[in-house]
Design a protein that fits this description.
mainly beta, 4-stranded antiparallel sheet, 3-stranded antiparallel sheet, 9 strands, 0% helix
Length: 107
């Protein structure tokens, strides 16, 4: 939902240009745009897919599935199933879509 000009869901927030207060929206974050960050939202690892120098992590945040890509050189140790990681999107990398039409909302 849009609150004070920002789309909000699962603890993430992004500007929602042109959206009406209370409008239903969908937030999109690409796997490359989620990072492990101090103060991020705690999410539980449910699947680890090692792919050589990169791994794909599937995480659960209050019943919502999140997928992120991690590079082996960026983490001291590969997370394990059951670990809790603090996640945050890279600044400016949360995409907002109108829930009814699926259209991207851009400024």
């Amino acid at each position: 939902r849009v609150v004070k000009g920002h789309a909000q869901a699962f603890g993430f927030s992004a500007p929602a240009p042109g959206a009406a207060e209370g409008q239903a929206v969908v937030l999109g974050i690409r796997p490359d745009d989620l990072i492990i960050a101090e103060g991020g939202l705690p999410s539980r690892v449910v699947l680890v897919e090692p792919l050589g120098s990169e791994s794909i992590l599937t995480l659960d945040r209050d019943g919502v599935e999140l997928v992120m890509k991690v590079n082996a050189r960026d983490v001291p140790a590969l997370p394990k199933v059951g670990d809790h990681l603090p996640l945050a999107p890279l600044p400016g990398r949360v995409h907002v879509f109108d829930a009814a039409s699926g259209q991207a909302m851009r400024g």
